[in-house]
Every structure is written in structure tokens, then in C-alpha cells.
Design goal:
311 residues, alpha/beta, Multidrug-efflux Transporter Regulator, Chain: A, Domain 2, Methyltransferase, Methionine Synthase (B12-binding Domains), Chain A, domain 1, Rossmann fold, 5-stranded parallel beta sheet, two-stranded antiparallel ribbon, 11% strand, elongated, binds cobalamin
Length: 311
């Protein structure tokens, strides 16, 4: 049998919408009014778009951004639109203006960040959380968004107050996820915190929210906590595990000492789990003390599941 490729199968309208940044309503309206692209239909009438169709929608957007009217370009082929864009000598300018929006899946959130619009950011994040579900929302939206915000901030392209304002909104949406499903009686307990000196909270919230979605009872202690306090919480709650996020700095003797102390105070009664961008710089002593280290959330989830089945 002939092997079906994505090209022969075609793309549903939702995929085209994500790839082009156009709403599904706009794509359908352009088809109805201007016949910009006329997709194939399945037996049940669902629209299926080819790569060329997607390319044309992107080209038409660029032509519009460069001042063309839709009636001028709707009936042209992709090569003709490309030639027109070149003739207009506007290719570079238009690409600069339109490509990030079409290609960057984070652009919706970043626009709200740059526009100091926390309400819009919150609404977009809520929609994404509902659409994707907790785990994908955290790995596909929250992680990449926070890293992008950090990148922009470090390049001087984002003022600190914008980073603070958006971090507060991200924190709120993770807290909602974390506290949405209160731990059930008898569920295994996970204590989550950051050690003394660690002020970055989002990694800890991500780990807590993920565990809570997976049915753990999460005792969330927040940031900057001495080893003694974390150990006391673990002891009193009979925690199966303690998860810490360590994001900055790496190789700090004070952080190292706190982690070593906590590993000792837990006496092996709760598994110590450490994740975050800086965690691996403490790996030698952590691994010696029997702790588990994670650089990503997927392996963390696998390990939580294993802990549930093999206590
Ligand atoms: C928000 C933010 C802040 C906020 C934090 C507010 C808050 N309530 O959390 C504030 C303003 C306090 C802050 C302060 C600082 N920050 Co800051 N910050 C950030 C930013 C933008 C996001 C941090 C974050 O939440 N990351 C969370 C996740 C998304 O990051 P991640 O480490 O990649 O985590 C992944 C995994 O490691 C894992 N993970 C994380 N934790 C855990 C835990 C467990 C158990 C598991 C299993 C997995 C896991 O999940 C993630 C997905 O895979 C980052 C950018 C970035 N790249 O992270 C900079 C960043 C971390 N900050 C940075 C700096 C320099 C600072 C300051 C020194 C700035 C200053 N001059 O004061 C201080 C230091 C504060 C301190 N003592 O810790 C740098 C660090 C550079 C470096 N590594 O050398 C970064 C990378 C920005 C940059 N690009 O330069 N920051």
C-alpha cells in the first residue's frame, strides 16, 4: 500500500491556524469571500489543507502587511506572490514585521508581556491550560515562556518590571493548578520547596502542580527555606519524597551545604528529588547521598509514577 505522508493526509484547520497565526474564522472567511485557498474536504466535509495552502496563507499575510489589498493577491499562485513581494522591495521589512508572529508559538503571551497587559496574559494562559491539560501546558507553555522571558530580560529587551509582572501571573496559574485538586486521604505526600537562598519559584510550582495532577498530596512550602524546616515538614507529613528546585546559582557552597544537610536530616525516609537549571552542578554530592536529579519534567513524572508503584 502507498505510504501516506502528512502532505497526502493534509492539515486540519486548527493546525493551519497554529502554523499561520490566523484564526480559523479568518481562514474560512478568506476562502468564502476571496477563495485565497480552497482546501480538500474529507468524506465528512472536514477541511484538509496542503503545505502549499499553508504557504499561501503565510504569503498573503506578508503581502497584506506590506500594504497590498487582499483582492490583489488572493487569486495569485505562491510564486507570483513571492515575486510581487520581491518587486515591492519589501521582503525583508515584511518578514521582520510578520515572521515572529506567525512562527513563534509564544507570541500571543509575549505580546501581552510587552504590552503590560496582565489580564490578557492571564486569559491566554487559562485558555492554553484548558486546551492542553496540565502536563502539556507546563512543558509546552510555562517552561518555554519563562525561559524566553529570561532571555529577553538578559539581552536588555525586557524591563525588569515586565518580567516581574508576568512572573506573578504565571505563578498564579500554576498555583491554581496546584491547589485545584486537594490531595486525597491516603495519597502519597510530596513536599515541595526551594532551599535557602533560592528565590526562583516557578520550577518548584511546576513540579508541585505536575505531582498534584498525578494524584500526589503536595505540601507546597514556597521558596528560600532552611534544610531543618523542610526536613521537619517531611517528617511530620510522612512524605514519600521531597522535591526541590535549584535554578541559580550553580556551584554555590552555601546551597551545597543546605542540600547535604537536608539529605542527612531526611535519613533516607523520604526520597530527595532535585531539579532545575542549576541542579546538575550539585550532582556529585547529591548522587552520593542517594538523591535523584532531574533536568526535565517528563523523567520526573516517570519517577513519581515508579515511586507510587514501588514505594
Ligand atoms: C523569573 C526570574 C526571576 C525572578 C524569580 C521570581 C519568582 N517568584 O520565581 C527574580 C526577579 C526573583 C529573579 C532573580 C534573579 N535572577 Co532570575 N530569572 C527568572 C526567569 C525569567 C525565570 C525563572 C524560572 O522560573 N525558571 C523556571 C524554569 C522554567 O526554568 P528551568 O530552570 O529551565 O527549569 C526546567 C527544568 O530544570 C525543570 N525544573 C525546574 N525546577 C525543577 C524542580 C524539580 C523537582 C524538577 C523535577 C524539575 C525542575 O523544569 C523546567 C522545565 O524543564 C529566568 C529565566 C530562565 N531561563 O529560567 C531568570 C534567570 C534564572 N535569572 C537569572 C539571574 C541572573 C537572576 C538574578 C541573579 C538577577 C539579579 N541580578 O538579581 C537574581 C537571583 C535571585 C536568586 N538569589 O536566586 C539568570 C541566571 C543566569 C545563570 N544561570 O547564570 C536567568 C537564567 C536569566 C538569564 N537568562 O540570564 N529571577
Amino acid at each position: 500500500m502507498e505510504k501516506q505522508t502528512i502532505q497526502t493526509i493534509g492539515h486540519p484547520i486548527q493546525v493551519v491556524s497554529r502554523r499561520t497565526g490566523l484564526t480559523t474564522d479568518r481562514i474560512r472567511a478568506w476562502e468564502r469571500r476571496y477563495k485565497v485557498v480552497i482546501p480538500r474536504r474529507t468524506e465528512t466535509g472536514r477541511r484538509l489543507y496542503s503545505d502549499d495552502d499553508v504557504g499561501k496563507l503565510l504569503l498573503v499575510q506578508r503581502a497584506l502587511a506590506g500594504g497590498r489589498r487582499i483582492g490583489e493577491v488572493a487569486g495569485l499562485g505562491n510564486d507570483q506572490i513571492r515575486a510581487l513581494l520581491k518587486d515591492d522591495a519589501a521582503v525583508t521589512r515584511i518578514e521582520m514585521a510578520t515572521r515572529p508572529k506567525a512562527a513563534n508559538p509564544l507570541s500571543e503571551y509575549l505580546d501581552s508581556v510587552h504590552n503590560l497587559n496582565p489580564e490578557a496574559l492571564q486569559a491566554s494562559l487559562s485558555r492554553a491550560a484548558a486546551r492542553l491539560g496540565g502536563e502539556a501546558f507546563i512543558s509546552q507553555v510555562v517552561g518555554p515562556l519563562m525561559r524566553e522571558i529570561g532571555e529577553l530580560w538578559s539581552q536588555g529587551m525586557l524591563d525588569p518590571y515586565l518580567e516581574h509582572c508576568s512572573t506573578a501571573i504565571v505563578r498564579k496559574s500554576l498555583q491554581e493548578m496546584l491547589f485545584a485538586a486537594p490531595g486525597k486521604e491516603g495519597a502519597p505526600v510530596l513536599v515541595v520547596a526551594t532551599p535557602s537562598g533560592q528565590l526562583h519559584e516557578i520550577g518548584a510550582l511546576m513540579a508541585g502542580a505536575l505531582a498534584s495532577v498525578r494524584g500526589w498530596r503536595v505540601l507546597y512550602l514556597g521558596v528560600d527555606l532552611p534544610a531543618e524546616d523542610i526536613a521537619s515538614a517531611a517528617r511530620r507529613s510522612h512524605a514519600r519524597a521531597v522535591a526541590l528546585s535549584v535554578i541559580y546559582p550553580g556551584n554555590d557552597p552555601k546551597v551545597q551545604a543546605e542540600l547535604d544537610k537536608l539529605a542527612r536530616l531526611l535519613h533516607g525516609k523520604s526520597l530527595l528529588i532535585v531539579g532545575g537549571a542549576a541542579a546538575k552542578s550539585y550532582s556529585d554530592s547529591l548522587l552520593r547521598s542517594g538523591a535523584a536529579l532531574f533536568e526535565d519534567t517528563e523523567t520526573f513524572l516517570d519517577s513519581l509514577t515508579r515511586l507510587l508503584t514501588n514505594p
